[in-house]
């Protein structure tokens, strides 16, 4: 895992001091809220419905137990005892006081963390595969390059006041678990014909009110030139991205309006100037950073099969947890564990201080002190011995973190919605809760299989509803809250934006509507191995529309 | 007779005094300049009034009246160091002729001259600042000593002065006395002839309004007499001439502090903004908007004066890349601090085109963005935001002084930008 050197530590210290000064000037009235807003945003501080919200960067979703314990400490000391893990692998606290923020930042700095650029119109936290460095299907570990991008983008003087926020995601595996095609820039590791590893660059993807699947702008950029290439894209965007309309300011609109070829021409012209210049990344530096990510001292273990069937007979809940929450590891005898933060009936992504501490202990003892945050708002212990799984499970049960629903219908992504968010049209957490109560039966969940439901409280789509196999979007209609349902979205390498099925439903009617879709799928699937999304692709939307609204509606 | 008592130096305007001054204006016949002056000197402000005279083309009339009322009234003369020798001769002539015993020359602070105008050409680049150090600064301590001032201003002189009264109250509660308010050009000439007063030696040569030599030119027939001052410099009036309602009591140059921050200090700015009537052939020390430059490119290139360029967001610095060496300064406009396009422009200018002149940020320039601007190549800042000015003046910008990215041209030591470390 990356460790700050003297330079990184000094950088965060200075930045914290700078922001503390800005907070002081705001509190004293020297800065107006207008002048303070972009400054606090660049330090992760939002003004929400009820209070300030502080979002803390978890670079590419990687945490140590010490860091997670500090987050627990912050939750307990400055907040209401819990934190919320986000879809960008960060954590946010919903109730800090402005005057405490400098102290929180100082606490964070003591464990090599910060809130820099977790909001504002700048380059945000770089996200990646939660199984990076562990996944069996990985081409390369994306974290060294992610760390270099983190450094390159930190307080970049040219790109601190972009037209709009800018998000970069990377995937080191061909199975995209980081939704790179829905980011401003997505980086997909690929090997060129001579076996060299580089990056496919995707640009202009995004969700929000205009969901667009990114387009490939370059099929192979070697590590050496990656920074120059990204800086070229950013410069074109900074100069030509729209600033007249906040809703059209993302790079996806620029690419969409100007056309990929035009943008590509401008980017390539910039790149021709910058290529080979100061941004060239020397192999030595890449190696130096990569050294921080050398695999932990794995034991030589025999390959171990987990006999899920047998375990299920012995202990159903444990068996199901094994079946759903364990991902295969590239080392024999090891596995990655997904800790679900989606217990039935609780806000998705929330963890209490006690839970964080318990998970930190588990990571320290069983996972080489490493932890990950997933963009699906779960936690991961990336490197655990299969032999330790039962012990870990038991500890999780004690903390109410042992839900075996990873990847299942109740493992939803859900934004904070009207309960916390100033922009929301509708509540989203209660919707998630009512759905998970409806599908609480594990037998039923297993029968349904892989199904991703994603819920956003408004068109800003923080809950990624566009890429939910089933997406739910809260809208405001005549003062009431209605929920629109979309179908067929997919965040992976088969990227697709879900289609709106029709008129919205009242909150109480949503679980029924989801159940009708699920029943239709079960009735129509070729066999239990055909997942929901595959069936939707094969059958099209018609039968599902009919299930939702009935035959007459369809005819109308 | 309405009476306004000797002036207590108070800062809050007193409505009664204001009324008194208004009443005073009704007391005198329009042309009774001498009566006005005498009343001011003897009744309203005894021992507490003085006059500043330019010893210009028609200063003689008022000074003659002064000599009738009180020969030892303090008469200040701004010896700016830039006067025509003829003016200096004229001071002596009038002094002797009128028997004025209290003419006091006040001079600029030599330290100021050395610092701001070492070559004596500030008048060309920045007349506001030149006037400031040569007139306003030296006069400031003296204006505070008196409760009132006599001026030679006349209604007819410029369009803006059409309603000048005999008595005015300034916002800092001083009384301005304008005995000649109702005099016309012809009245001045008639008075001069009647009393056989000497003419300014340059009057016959066509100088109707005479100030410092560099800033005075001949006025054409029928032209506003003051049109000869600051011809082409877009500078018409100076705050020192206090307006009629007393709203502006301070010289404008004192209100408008130096806004250009460069090399660690706020300094006089030789440049001014491009204005409506500016001409591509004669403009100088002006930041020409990029589209205007492109439109009149040939003319600007033939113009021999120093020029600057103004680049606003959305304009492409590439479009003038071959002409950049023509500019002494490029101003990059930040219309709002949230508009980051200027950063790219600055980097292109300094890094790609190696522009060596001044790169200045103008517009919404605030403390928290300045460090970023500097890293992108900005070398000068035009700042109006008061807390930012203070932070700059005190050297107290909150900034992060170490960076990750290689931005800018200066080499950063190995070890400060991790990924840039190179083997060998
Ligand atoms: C930016 C600064 C200034 C400008 C633009 C300016 C402008 C002028 C002009 C155009 C005249 C000619 C009037 C004429 O001859 O008809 C003049 C005269 C004069 N100025 Fe200034 N001036 C400035 C500063 C000052 C200052 C600081 C003082 C001191 C209070 C001052 C006092 C006078 C006086 C007493 C006259 C002579 C009026 C007369 O002829 O009796 N000026 N000034
Ligand atoms: S999707 Fe809308 S309601 Fe939900 S968190 Fe984002 S802005 Fe708020
Ligand atoms: S009138 Fe001209 S020379 Fe005299 S002080 Fe002003 S700018 Fe300088």
TrEMBL record, chain A:
Q: Where is the signal peptide?
A: none
Residue stretches making up the Nitrite/Sulfite reductase ferredoxin-like domain: 52-110, 347-397
Enumerate the spans annotated as Nitrite/sulphite reductase 4Fe-4S domain.
Answer: 119-272, 411-548
SUPFAM superfamilies, per the entry: Nitrite and sulphite reductase 4Fe-4S domain-like, Nitrite/Sulfite reductase N-terminal domain-like
Does 4Fe-4S appear among the keywords? yes
Superkingdom of the organism of origin: Bacteria
What the entry lists under InterPro entries is as follows:
NIR_SIR_4Fe-4S, NiRdtase/SiRdtase_haem-b_fer, Nit/Sulf_reduc_fer-like_dom_sf, NO2/SO3_Rdtase_4Fe4S_dom, NO2/SO3_Rdtase_4Fe4S_sf
Q: Which UniProt keywords apply?
A: 4Fe-4S, Heme, Iron, Iron-sulfur, Metal-binding, Oxidoreductase
Q: What is this protein called?
A: Sulfite reductase
Q: Which organism is it from?
A: Devosia nitrariae
From TrEMBL, chain B:
Q: Which NCBIfam families match?
A: cysH, PRK02090.1
Q: Write down the Gene3D superfamilies for this protein, in alphabetical order.
A: HUPs
Co-factor note (free text): Binds 1 [4Fe-4S] cluster per subunit.
Cofactor(s) required, per the database record: [4Fe-4S] cluster
> What job does the chain carry out?
Catalyzes the formation of sulfite from adenosine 5'-phosphosulfate (APS) using thioredoxin as an electron donor.
Q: Which InterPro entries match?
A: PAPS/APS_Rdtase, PAPS_reduct_dom, Rossmann-like_a/b/a_fold, UCP030820
Which residue range or ranges hold the Phosphoadenosine phosphosulphate reductase domain? 49-217
Q: What is its EC number?
A: 1.8.4.10
Q: Which UniProt keywords apply?
A: Cytoplasm, Iron, Iron-sulfur, Metal-binding, Oxidoreductase
Q: Which family does it belong to?
A: Belongs to the PAPS reductase family. CysH subfamily.
Record-linked HAMAP family = CysH
Coarse class of the primary localization is: cytoplasm
Binding site residues for [4Fe-4S] cluster: 130-131, 212, 215
**SUPFAM superfamilies in the cross-refs:** Adenine nucleotide alpha hydrolases-like
Which pathway or pathways does this protein act in?
Answer: Sulfur metabolism; hydrogen sulfide biosynthesis; sulfite from sulfate
EC class name: oxidoreductase
Localization terms from the record: Cytoplasm
Reaction(s) the record says it catalyses: [thioredoxin]-disulfide + sulfite + AMP + 2 H(+) = adenosine 5'-phosphosulfate + [thioredoxin]-dithiol
Q: Does the keyword Iron apply?
A: yes
Catalytic center at which residues?
238
Q: What is this protein called?
A: Adenosine 5'-phosphosulfate reductase
Organism this protein belongs to: Devosia nitrariae
């Amino acid at each position: 895992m990356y460790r700050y050197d003297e330079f990184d530590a000094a950088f965060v210290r200075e930045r914290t001091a700078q922001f503390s000064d800005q907070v002081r000037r705001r509190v004293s009235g020297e800065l107006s809220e207008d002048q303070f807003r972009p400054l606090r945003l660049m330090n992760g501080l939002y003004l929400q419905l009820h209070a300030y919200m502080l979002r803390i960067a978890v670079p590419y979703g990687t945490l140590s137990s010490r860091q997670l314990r500090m987050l627990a400490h912050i939750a307990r000391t400055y907040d209401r005892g819990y934190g919320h893990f986000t879809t960008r692998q960060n954590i946010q606290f919903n109730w800090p006081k402005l005057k405490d923020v400098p102290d929180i930042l100082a606490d964070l700095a003591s464990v090599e963390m910060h809130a820099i650029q977790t909001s504002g119109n700048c380059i945000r936290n770089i996200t990646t595969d939660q199984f990076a460095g562990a996944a069996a299907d990985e081409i390369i570990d994306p974290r060294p390059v992610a760390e270099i991008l983190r450094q390159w983008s930190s307080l970049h003087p040219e790109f601190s006041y972009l037209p709009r926020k800018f998000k970069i995601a990377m995937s080191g595996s061909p199975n995209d678990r980081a939704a790179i095609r829905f980011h401003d820039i997505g980086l997909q590791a690929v090997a060129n014909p001579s076996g060299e590893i580089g990056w496919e660059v995707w640009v202009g993807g995004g969700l929000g009110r205009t969901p667009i699947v990114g387009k490939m702008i370059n099929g192979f950029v070697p590590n050496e030139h990656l920074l120059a290439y990204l800086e070229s894209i950013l410069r074109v965007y900074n100069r030509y991205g729209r600033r007249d309309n906040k809703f059209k300011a993302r790079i996806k609109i620029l690419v969409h309006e100007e056309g990929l070829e035009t943008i590509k021409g401008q980017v390539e012209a910039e790149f021709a100037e910058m290529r080979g210049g100061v941004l060239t990344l020397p192999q030595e530096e890449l190696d130096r950073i990569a050294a921080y990510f050398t695999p932990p001292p794995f034991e030589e273990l025999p390959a171990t099969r987990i006999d899920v069937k047998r375990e299920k007979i012995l202990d159903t809940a444990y068996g199901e947890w094994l079946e759903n929450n364990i991902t295969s590891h590239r080392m024999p005898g090891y596995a990655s564990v997904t800790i679900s933060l989606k217990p039935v009936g609780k806000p998705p992504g929330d963890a209490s201080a006690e839970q964080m501490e318990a998970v930190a202990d588990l990571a320290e003892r069983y996972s080489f002190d490493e932890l990950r945050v997933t963009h699906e708002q779960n936690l991961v212990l990336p490197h655990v011995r299969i032999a330790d799984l039962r012990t870990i499970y038991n500890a999780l049960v004690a903390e109410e973190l042992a839900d075996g629903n990873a990847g299942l219908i109740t493992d939803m992504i859900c934004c904070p919605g009207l309960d916390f968010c100033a922009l929301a049209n509708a509540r989203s957490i209660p919707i998630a809760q009512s759905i998970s109560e409806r599908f609480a039966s594990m037998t039923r969940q297993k029968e349904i299989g892989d199904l991703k439901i994603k819920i956003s409280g408004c068109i800003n789509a923080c809950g990624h509803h566009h890429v939910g196999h089933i997406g739910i979007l809260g809208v405001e209609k005549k003062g009431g809250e209605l929920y629109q349902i979309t179908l067929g979205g997919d965040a992976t390498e088969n990227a697709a934006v879900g289609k709106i099925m029709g008129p919205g439903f009242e909150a109480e009617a949503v679980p029924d509507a989801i159940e009708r879709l699920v029943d239709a799928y079960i009735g129509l699937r070729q066999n239990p191995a055909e997942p929901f999304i595959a069936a939707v692709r094969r059958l099209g939307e018609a039968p599902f529309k009919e299930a939702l609204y009935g035959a007459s509606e369809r005819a109308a | 007779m309405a009476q306004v008592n000797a002036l207590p130096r108070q800062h809050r305007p007193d409505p009664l005094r204001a009324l008194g001054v208004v009443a005073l204006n009704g007391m005198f016949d329009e042309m009774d300049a001498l009566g006005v002056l005498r009343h001011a000197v003897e009744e309203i402000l005894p021992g507490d009034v003085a006059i500043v005279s330019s010893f210009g083309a028609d200063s003689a009339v008022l000074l003659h009246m002064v000599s009738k009322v009180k020969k030892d009234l303090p008469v200040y003369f701004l010896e700016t160091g830039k006067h025509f020798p003829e003016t200096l001769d004229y001071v002596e002539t009038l002094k002797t002729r009128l028997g004025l015993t209290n003419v006091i020359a006040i001079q600029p602070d030599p330290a100021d001259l050395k610092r701001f105008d070492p070559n004596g050409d500030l008048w060309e680049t920045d007349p506001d600042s030149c006037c400031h150090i040569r007139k306003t600064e030296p006069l400031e301590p003296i204006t505070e000593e008196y409760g009132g001032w006599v001026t030679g201003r006349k209604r007819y002189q410029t369009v803006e002065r059409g309603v000048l009264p005999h008595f005015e109250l300034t916002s800092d509660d001083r009384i301005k006395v304008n005995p000649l308010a109702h005099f016309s050009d012809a009245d001045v000439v008639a008075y001069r002839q009647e009393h056989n007063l000497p003419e300014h030696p340059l009057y016959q040569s066509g100088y109707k309004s005479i100030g410092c030599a560099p800033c005075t030119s001949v006025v054409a027939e029928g032209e506003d007499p003051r049109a000869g001052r600051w011809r082409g410099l877009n500078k018409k009036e100076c705050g020192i001439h206090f307006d009629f309602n007393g709203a502006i009591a301070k010289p404008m140059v004192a209100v408008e502090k130096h806004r250009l921050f460069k090399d660690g200090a706020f300094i006089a700015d030789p440049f001014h903004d491009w204005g409506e009537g500016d001409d591509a052939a004669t403009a100088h020390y002006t930041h020409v908007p990029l589209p205007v430059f492109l439109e009149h490119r040939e003319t600007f290139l033939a113009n021999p004066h120093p020029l600057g360029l103004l680049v606003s967001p959305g304009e492409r610095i590439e479009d003038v890349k071959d002409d950049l060496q023509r500019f002494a300064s490029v101003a990059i406009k930040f219309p709002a601090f949230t508009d980051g396009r200027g950063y790219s422009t600055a980097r292109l200018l300094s890094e790609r085109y190696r522009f060596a002149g001044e790169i200045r940020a103008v517009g919404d320039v605030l403390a928290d963005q300045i460090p970023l601007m500097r890293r992108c190549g900005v070398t000068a800042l035009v700042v109006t935001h008061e807390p930012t000015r203070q932070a700059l003046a005190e050297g107290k910008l909150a900034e992060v002084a170490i960076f990750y990215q290689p931005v800018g041209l200066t080499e950063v030591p190995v070890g400060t930008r991790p990924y840039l470390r190179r083997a060998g």
